[in-house]
Amino acid sequence: MSSLTFLGAARTVTGSKHLLEVDGQRILFDCGLFQGLKELRLRNWAPLSVPPDTIDAVVLTHAHIDHCGWLPRLISQGFRGRVHCTGGTADLCQLVLPDAAHIQEEDAKFANKRGFSKHAPALPLYTEEDAAEALSRLKPSPFNTKISVTGGIEVEFINAGHLLGSSYVLATRKDRSGGRILFGGDLGRYARPILPDPSPGVDADVLLIESTYGDRIHPQEDDGATLARIVTETFARRGKVIIPAFAIGRTEELLYWLFKLEDEGRLPKLPIYVDSPMAIKGIAHYSARADELDKEILEMRRKLPRFTAANSAAESKALVANDAPAVIIASSGMATGGRVVHHLFAGLPDPRNTVLFVGFQAAGTRGRNLVEGAQLVKMFGQQVPVHARIEKIDGMSSHADAGEIIRWLRTFPRAPQTTYLVHGEIIAQEALKLRITKELGWNVEIPSHGQKVDLPL
Ligand SMILES: [Zn+2]
User: Fold this and answer.
1) At 223, phi and psi to the nearest 5?
2) Taking the mean position of all CA atoms in its chain, how far away is CA 68?
3) For residues 300 and 295, what is the distance between their CA atoms, to the nearest angstrom?
4) What is the pLDDT of residues 52-81, one digit of tens each?
5) What pLDDT was estimated at residue 73?
6) From the CA of 85, how far away is ligand 1's center (Å)?
7) Residue 119: pLDDT above 70?
8) Can you give the pTM of this predicted structure?
9) How far is CA 432 from CA 234, 422, 442, 450, in A?
10) Are 187 and 169 within 8 A, CB to CB?
11) Which one of 15, 221, 317, 425 is CB 3.0 to 4.6 Å from 8, fit for a cystine?
12) What tens digit of pLDDT does each residue of 346-385 get?
């Protein structure tokens, strides 16, 4: 008997956790943190539906926190097994898990200082020690190679083109009896810089696929025209372009575009700074695994990297204080924390500057307020006037849109018996289900949180 239980990312976009049970063996595919609304975040504190010490192994599709960020908690709750992933995922986990633990510890400290926690003292969801233990369990494997994860089950990682090391995972029985289940992870995009196209689909009886943009089509690529315009206009005013960006993935894409525009003579040679220790380490991991990236980047890499890294706090402070024209990439992406806040604090009152947002800005964040035209924003206890220009570029998402998902599904050699939509809000999922049913005639289900289904595995 085999079953699958949806323990996260069911009718929502975070907390990915799918429990596969085959002949009494338990494997957890992804171990993500719930993020966003409070009712979701509270799930991070709830016990898992099965005791963690009864799970034999964990398999990670990629290193985004909503896919791997609950791992230290699983370990602190008693999980004793190994964590299988690709080499790229293991590299990036070394950056994101200790950082996530640090944030958890800081939040708990803050709650204790302010006394707003119901618990005395407030405890972190997990500690940096738990994160270190999680890293010691990682077992990296190459792409396209069958590896044994339990006595009876093997898995294979296939490049998904969504983040360095990102994969879909095919799970099969070692004795080849039974069906094949493909855990889709997050799906990358076609014809994008840095990352390769998603690998074609494979023969599978059951498929799990993300549906984040199941009801949307990304804007058409403009070959860097908007970025070139924004940077050119700001430099003409002798201002700075401050770009809040997610440390890993988005920073690489921005650098690619800036170098490409410069190389094609569409921008002059500019001082470019990356002010984020995590982003700088992330760039090193991308460079070290260039053979897993888009072919075009190999060509670009010969000219790369020409940017100045601000590693230390002193370098960052000096950069904030210097008002010479420059492009500054700093995290966090939604301007909720990190070094970019210092750049904004100093740069927002100056009309020569531009703040450029390149990612999704969630409701309630400082980034969202700025994008929506706030005249004043609160930082470090002060109201800061917004005189800088605020710009945004859509379309740098690393998730496939509805059209790209359909395009990928068409690469499967046959229709799976069942396709489960996960990692999406229900409106996007209903729209995608309708499209897949209509255009491909496939059987599609939208599982609910905690739902358990039988599998032909
Ligand atoms: Zn992802």
Assistant:
1) 55, 40
2) 10
3) 9
4) 999 999 999 999 999 999 999 999 999 999
5) 98
6) 14
7) no
8) 0.92
9) 40, 11, 12, 21
10) no
11) 15
12) 999 999 999 999 987 877 789 989 999 999 999 888 999 9
Looking at residue 31, its pLDDT comes to 98
Give the CA angle between residues 139, 141, 144 to the nearest 5°: 155
How far does the centroid of ligand 1 lie from the alpha carbon of residue 63, in Å?
7
Q: Coil, helix or strand for 112?
A: helix
Report the C-alpha gap between 130 and 289 in whole angstroms. 27
Q: pLDDT at position 124, please?
A: 93
- Write down the mean pLDDT value for the chain: 93
Q: What are 215-259's pLDDT values in tens digits?
A: 999 988 888 999 999 999 999 999 999 999 988 989 999 999 998
Quote the ligand 1 centre to 120 CA distance (angstroms): 35
Phi/psi for 438 (5° steps) reads -70, -45
- For CA atoms 282, 288, 289, 294, the dihedral sign is positive
Q: Cα 279 to chain center, whole Å?
A: 13
Amino acid, single-letter form, for residue 38: K
From ligand 1's centre to the CA of 327, what distance in Å? Answer: 27
Confidence check: pLDDT of 303 > 60 = no
Give residue 295's pLDDT. Answer: 81
CA separation (Å) from 455 to 173, 204, 418? 12, 12, 9
Strand partners, 139: 84
Quote the pLDDT of residue 312: 92
> What dihedral angle (degrees, nearest 10) is formed by the CA atoms of 30, 65, 15, 174?
0
Integer-rounded Cα radius of gyration of the chain? 22
189/140 Cα distance (integer angstroms)? 24
Distance 8 CA to ligand 1 centre (A): 14
Please say whether the beta carbons of 370 and 357 come within 8 A: yes
User: Is the pLDDT at 338 greater than 90, yes or no?
Assistant: no
Among 225, 271, 279, which residue's Cα sits nearest to residue 247? 279
Distance 186 CA to ligand 1 centre (A): 5
Distance 385 CA to ligand 1 centre (A): 35
Predicted confidence (pLDDT) at residue 300 exceeds the cutoff of 90: no
CA of residue 322 to ligand 1 center, whole Å: 35
Report how far ligand 1's centroid is from the alpha carbon of 212 (Å): 10
* Listed residues: CB within 5 A of ion ligand 1: 64, 186
* Tokens found for residue 76: 């602190």
Q: Give residue 62 CA to ligand 1 midpoint distance, Å.
A: 7
Structure tokens at 98: 């200790």
Gap from CA of 437 to ligand 1 centroid (Å): 25
The H or E element that residue 355 is part of is strand 354-357
Strands 17-22 and 2-8: antiparallel
